[in-house]
Amino acid sequence: MSTALKVLARIMGFSCVAIGVLHIVAGNAAIPGGESAGPTIDSLGRFFGAIFAGYGLAWLWAARQSPVPAAAVRALAAIFLLGAAGRLLSLATAGQPHSFQIVLLVIELALPPVYFWLATADEKQHAAAASGAKADSVPA
Fold first, then answer.
1. 136 pLDDT higher than 60
2. Taking a C-beta distance cutoff of 8 angstroms, is the pair 119, 73 a contact?
């Protein structure tokens, strides 16, 4: 479980950095259906791209710690889930977005529970190794 946490955290980090950089570089062109949104949304998208890249760097930082800090994983997963809540609010108030945004919503709803479940895996493995016991295969 510890390995799964580290791998998923790294994938999340690299993905978020890549997506963030894409939004910084491409602006509105990075948003499906948003190509003609205008300069205000372009500015906003590029700004949020930088924030999302920073969010990805936070995942990469967490994944490099030994042990991977459960509190950081939970906080980062909660932020991701909050993004899903924002998309749900938008869906309810503004209507259905581009279908790609629905795919992203599904990912944003599915991944946080996995991270919450795995959050303590690396800390438990390190604690078990320090005490000479075998690590529990299922995190609590």
1. no
2. yes
